[in-house]
Amino acid sequence: MASVVRVISTLSAPCSESGFNFITQAQLTTCGEIALMIERLRMRRRETINQPMYCRQAWHSLIVVSLLTCLMSGCLPKPRGGVEGVNLTVYGFSIMKEVMEKAIFPGFSAKWKQERGEEVRFTSSFAGSETITNQILQGVGADIAILSIERDADRLKQGGAVTSDWHTLPQHGVINKTPFVILVRRGNPKGIRDFSDLAKPGVKLIHPDPVSSGGAQWSLLALYGAELVKSEKQTGGRDESKAFQMLQAIWRNVISTPGSAREARTQFETGFGDALVTYELEGLMMKAANAPVEIVVPEATILSEHPAVVVDRNVTAAERTVVNAFMQYLWSDEAQRAFVQYHFRAIADESLNNNPQFAQIKFPFTVEYFGGWGRAYPDVIERIWQGRVQKAK
């Protein structure tokens, strides 16, 4: 019964398979439609409470048949191993999708096949970092999680899903990084040159939801921290009052808070809003697709750093060798070059960051400027944004 409940709870989650056995879009659509149908049947069942017993039994039967149909539809992950090779399940935050499915998974699969003669397939799911963390804590069978923020790794450890220490991995578990920038419409009609311009009257800002998106939390740190950094450069001290007022003024102009950085980009692409605060790589990808946007590089901004962790709870002894090998592969020159190719910045070797499109930032900073996530989340996200900015809007 528990597995059935888990299936229902995850039907609407993003799922795809990379490697050799792809889950088709048609199957994803079918699962989504079936999930919606089950919910409608459940709601319809409420209307039958006062009807004869045979009516209620009929509705029960329909719900069971619908669930069985979904279980047979191919949306659920394939077996984790067997004669056909090994299947690894990777959950990642939204903007990792392209590089993982197009470069990292195929690259590792080819390497492992050449060295060990064994097929490795990947099942992957991508959403907001907070969202995938919650899904793993609720029991989904991820072997590896690639997260936007280290706080989510800490949550997985506190929940018992992760028992190993990712800090012992290369670069303390961080696999790549990217700065936060502003995307505006072609020609920059609102004259936005820095974060402070987002507070201008009439600017309509798209910003992902900090409740579900790790990228949104990075963005808040970028907006608030930029004012602290600039005031410190100018006066020698951090002006927290000015930083708070700026964040509050900017947040008043937020007109939409999509669930993830990728959803926010998609909404901006449709023509909604004047500006979007997001990862640099999202802007570079849009420009590569000839989207009518420009990238505004703030004078001071944060470099987001993204950790990868093993979900030890789900990894069997038989899978441990290939899981560990995949984790180490993420810091190989091959993988780091792939990250750069897909507009992330390499973490293992700065000399690989030779992409001429990468922005030059005058005053870059990291989460360590706030004392790490252990202080940044309670001090900025909870106390300032949740406790003061959001309540005042």
Structure characterization notes:
This protein has helices at residues 2-10, 25-46, 53-71, 97-116, 129-137, 150-158, 214-235, 240-252, 261-269, 280-288, 320-329, 333-341, 373-392; strands at 16-18, 86-93, 120-127, 144-146, 174-185, 205-206, 254-256, 275-279, 293-296, 300-310, 345-346, 363-365. It is built from 13 helices and 12 strands. The chain is globular. The longest helix has 22 residues, at 25-46. The protein is an alpha/beta fold and 393 residues long. The chain has a domain at 176-305 and 357-392: Periplasmic binding protein-like II (D-Maltodextrin-Binding Protein, domain 2, 3-Layer(aba) Sandwich). Strands 1, 2, 3, 4, 5, 6, 7, 8, 9, 10, 11 and 12 form a 12-stranded mixed beta sheet that branches. The chain starts with a helix and ends with a helix. α7 packs across α8 (240-252) and α7 crosses α13.
Instruction: Figure out the total of helices.
Output: 13
CATH architecture of the domain at 176-305 and 357-392: 3-Layer(aba) Sandwich
The pLDDT mean sits at: 85
Instruction: Output the CATH class name of the domain at 176-305 and 357-392.
Output: Alpha Beta
Query: How many strand elements?
Result: 12
CATH third-level topology of the domain at 176-305 and 357-392: D-Maltodextrin-Binding Protein, domain 2
Secondary structure category: alpha/beta
Please state the CA-atom Rg, rounded to the nearest Å. Answer: 23 Å
Strand fraction? 15-25%
What is the approximate shape? globular
What do we call the CATH homologous superfamily of the domain at 176-305 and 357-392? Periplasmic binding protein-like II
Q: SSE string, helix = H, strand = E?
A: HEHHEHEHEHEEHHEHEHEEHHEEH
Spatial separation of the terminal alpha carbons: 44 Å
Main sheet specs: 12 strands, mixed
Helix fraction by DSSP (H/I, runs of at least 4): 40-55%
Return residue spans where pLDDT drops below 50 for at least 5 consecutive residues. 1-83
